[in-house]
Amino acid sequence: MEYLAGKFLIASPYLPDPNFLRTVVLMVQHDQEGAVGLVLTRPINLTVQEVWQNVSGESIDAPDQVLQGGPVEGPLMAIHQEPKLSELEVIPGVYFASQRENIEPLIRENRKPFRLFLGYSGWAAQQLEDEMEVGGWLTLPAKPEQVFETNTDLLWKSVSGEVGENIMRDSLNLKSMPQDPNMN
Prior knowledge:
The chain has 184 residues and is α+β, with helices and mostly antiparallel strands. The protein has 5 helices and 11 strands; from the N terminus they run ββββαββββαββαβαα. It is globular and about 45 Å long.
């Protein structure tokens, strides 16, 4: 199986876990030991400003919503476009950070675009592969403009629509899909 870092996982109707209903997950890391991803479609009722106030005691102007990255508790995590503040490049131009010294300048200096996450999605060795084998997830290469899309409904619709088009094109053995199938 190919490793899925840098791809989107889109929950299929065959995935029974309610934590992932209608989710798009950006895969940050995936190897033989397991996988880590961040849900891009689960905003929570907290702003970056509120989280930063709780973490640092400092008041800043940051009204963006924080996302629930998944059901596993963990440190604050961020996806951003600042190579010097990263621990890992997820896709070209999109970086991951979980260390405070990397996240703090993003928040304090409001270096957009960035997305802040509480929690993450994690899979033990072979767990994700088993879920993939039974059709629990669909995949798509991640694009920076989609990673930083703040309208989570729009993100879900565009990514799931793109996956659907790919499935139709592949199953019909087409080189391209017309925008309007009535135009065949």
